[in-house]
Task: structure prediction
Amino acid sequence: MSLFPVISAIGSLLAFLLLIQLTAALFTQRGQRYDYTFYYPKPKPVSSPFSPDEGWHITRASPPDADHGIWESITQLDHEGMGILADKNRSALTAHTDFHKYLKTTGNTICGCHAIGVLWGALVRLERASGRKASCTWVKYDQSAQVTEVSEFSVSYASGFITI
Result:
């Protein structure tokens, strides 16, 4: 069962409790300990959609390419998700729906994904009620470690703000 409808409904109910300016954080967990090891073998434009056949889950038997580090692949995957939420051409509803699809397609382990879903559910309601467009701007991105080995792990952090 998908939590998407429930998360959207909660966000809709909380919409009017939000202020004009909000902050959000995104946390992506990667590594064998998190059971998420997807790897892009080469850089791709952030604007092109995720395709599972463009990469693989790395193991010792199928290691990453020497010229494109694991940490670079993580950055690419993170920025793809962040780009969906910050795309000025998407409404809050479209961004919310597309981010849900991104999570489902990539299997990415973003531990704050439900909070982000609730927030975007609220933004959908606020956009409809106010006639104004929500805008997300990411201001900081970092990783707990620059992973170079299959056995290593990291957590990514992104912070930004939303204005309406």
About this structure: The first helix runs from residue 4 to 14. The CA atoms of residues 38 and 57 lie 4 Å apart. Helices lie at 4-14, 70-86, 92-106, 113-130.
